[in-house]
Specification:
Length: 459
């Protein structure tokens, strides 16, 4: 990590703590800045504010005094979730004070190459793929950003021989002024977070930030199959590396002759690829290209593509048991995410869904239920999803109060060759605090039920 940066002897305000703000404040303080942190939560019980104060950092809690922002500030570093119409942020903009996020401070301190990943979907899977592709040889990868640990924390454990792999959201990318990854990855673009950005154009502008400061010495891996992405990258100065499921691309990554190809050479057959669904294949193409450019070996890339079981709760393969395969897609908190999962399988699917009722319909699922042989639902939306399944004549449809009972029924009626898929289409908050907690419940229930049946238990 570099310690001589633009932040020495400068005055910086960090707005909003949580984990990213706390780590940004620590890093800036270590780099020699005069740091003040401001958080809405009262000082009493604010463990992060108390921790920072013990380090010698000034803390202001319980409100946002306007006088914290003045023309002498070098920058305001804000939590990505804080909107730009926040009064403190608006004042900084009016005074010409740069408004940044912690990924910029991490970049300022990094003396190793950075691979950064953004897109509307698939960021976490692709970032995780890349991290795994460096595990056994090549540079050491430190994974951070919108996944796991804040970049401002992670960068402090790197040196010049490492590679920093960062998942980046549009919220984070808005707050940069020099951030320049060696390899940027742009996966796809669909309308998202428009309540935050205000319009599709502003959302696109935020995503384009990932390559805004790149030069011809850098690389931009992009989705040749997404027309919006193709249009976006026209303004990039970086060396462009495309990936595609549809076109032969000797200069990038593609699918050809039922195999994954990388830079004009066959890497492995699709039969060897470990994850279901074209969306996962696309993520793998992007990851393979980025990791290869970053110094990962072809052997390790190939190994990861054969063995990677997915990111937790995102179409995560759990196990195969008596010819059945179990997948945890608890992260599917809306209908489009479940549609993506259903499109990933050719085998008969037993679908488990349900959760918080937000008053939305599930009609869009109907035309994707052709391979669904049974639907078991639970929670507040149990009857709504069940009715959708009945409309398309799914033969076995039942509703339950809790997830565990739905899983029990799914295992009991399953046959050799079936996929048992948790893909709820709903938020978890009717019965679980998080989608992670819901997914963990599914995994534990599967393990219990399959253990019981394999040892001559209840079923």
């Amino acid at each position: 990590m570099k310690t001589k940066t633009r932040w020495k002897n400068t005055e910086v305000l960090v707005l909003g703590l949580a984990r990213s703000g706390t780590e940004a404040a620590k890093l800036l303080y270590r780099l020699g800045a005069d740091v003040t942190v401001n958080d809405q939560a009262p000082y009493e019980g604010n463990i992060q504010a108390q921790e920072l104060e013990k380090l010698g950092i000034k803390v202001v809690c319980g409100g946002h005094p306007p006088n914290l922002v003045h023309s002498g500030l070098k920058a305001l570093v804000k939590n990505p979730g804080i909107r730009y119409d926040h009064p403190i942020v608006e004042k900084a903009v009016q005074l010409g004070v740069p408004v940044l996020t912690e990924i910029q401070t991490a970049f300022d301190a990094a003396d190793c190459p950075i691979i950064s990943v953004t897109g509307s979907n698939g960021k976490t899977t692709t970032t995780s793929y890349i991290g795994e592709m460096f595990k056994e040889d090549g540079p050491k990868a430190v994974v951070a950003g919108n996944i796991g640990r804040p970049a401002s924390e992670a960068v402090q454990s790197t040196d010049s021989s490492d590679v920093l792999v960062m998942e980046l959201s549009s919220f984070q990318l808005l707050g940069i002024d020099t951030f320049r990854p060696k390899v940027a990855v742009l996966l796809n673009l669909v309308d998202a977070h428009l309540d935050y950005h205000g319009s599709r154009d502003e959302y696109i502008r935020a995503k384009k930030q990932i390559f805004r400061y790149q030069t011809s010495d850098d690389y931009l891996v992009y989705n040749e199959d997404d027309p919006a992405v193709v249009e976006m990258v026209k303004t990039s100065a970086a060396h462009k590396v495309p990936f595609s499921l549809k076109r032969d691309l000797p200069e990038g990554a593609c699918v050809k002759k039922q195999a994954i190809w990388l830079f004009g050479k066959e890497l492995l057959s699709l039969k060897e690829f470990s994850l279901p669904g074209e969306h996962n294949t696309a993520n793998a193409l992007a990851a393979a290209a980025a990791a290869s450019i970053g110094g990962a070996s072809k052997a390790q890339i190939r190994k990861v593509l054969r063995t990677f079981s997915g990111v937790e709760h995102r179409l995560q393969f759990i196990k195969e048991w008596k010819g059945r395969r179990f997948y945890n897609n608890s992260k599917a908190t809306n209908v489009p995410a479940t549609i993506t999962a259903l499109k990933a399988f050719e085998e008969p699917v037993i679908l488990i869904g349900g959760g918080l009722d937000r008053g939305l319909a599930f009609d869009e699922l109907e035309k994707y239920m052709g391979k669904v042989k049974a639907v078991f639902t639970y929670g507040e939306t149990a009857e709504k999803i069940a009715e959708t399944a009945r409309k398309v004549s799914v033969k076995n449809v039942k509703t339950f109060e809790i997830l565990n009972d739905a899983v029990d029924e799914a295992v009991g009626c399953s046959e050799d060759g079936d996929v048992i898929l948790l893909s709820p289409s709903c938020a978890s908050w009717d019965q679980y605090r998080t989608f992670e907690e819901r997914g963990d419940t599914f995994i534990r229930t599967v393990e219990r039920l399959t253990a019981e049946t394999s040892t001559g238990g209840q079923k």
